[in-house]
Write a structure and sequence with these properties.
28% of the residues lie in helices and 42% in strands. With 149 residues, it is an alpha+beta fold.
Length: 149
């Protein structure tokens, strides 16, 4: 008898988890644009969190068919997305320069790459956050990307 009750509780728990995760996914669908940070927020992120730059002009469209379109100042990226815990993951399928001549000839002989791993965006209410890091011209950079629905 106790085993039967525990089995029912387990089944109901699984159904509830599934329903709540589906509702979170549908809330993610929509268009997100670069969030304009105020002077205090930029100063805090620069001095305390170590960001050296802030992305602007970024737009992300999350579609209900698990596809996305991401447009940055330099690239047009498409692919698939999925939701897990507190993050939205983007799996790039294409990554092209926005500028036709760059797409044809490259930038200093280079073209945009497709990351091997999904890109994780943290979710907080109606905002998405992530950062990119690397080296350019011998200097390290850390760019903050914040999008608001």
């Amino acid at each position: 008898m106790l085993g039967h009750i525990m089995k029912k509780v387990f089944q109901i728990s699984i159904v509830l988890i599934f329903l709540f995760s589906c509702s979170n996914q549908t809330q993610l669908i929509g268009t997100y644009k670069s969030d304009d940070l105020n002077y205090f927020e930029k100063t805090w992120k620069y001095f305390i969190q170590g960001y050296t730059s802030f992305a602007i002009g970024t737009e992300l469209e999350i579609k209900n068919d698990s596809l996305f379109d991401l447009t940055t100042c330099a690239n047009i990226i498409t692919g698939k997305w999925f939701y897990l815990n507190d993050s939205l993951y983007l799996v790039y399928e294409t990554n092209k320069w926005r500028n036709d001549s760059l797409q044809k000839y490259g930038y200093e002989g280079k073209w945009p790459q497709i990351p091997q791993k999904p890109i994780a965006l943290k979710i907080r209410k109606n905002k998405l956050f992530w950062h990119t890091e690397g080296f350019q011209e011998g200097k390290a950079y850390k760019t903050f990307n914040g999008l608001k629905k």
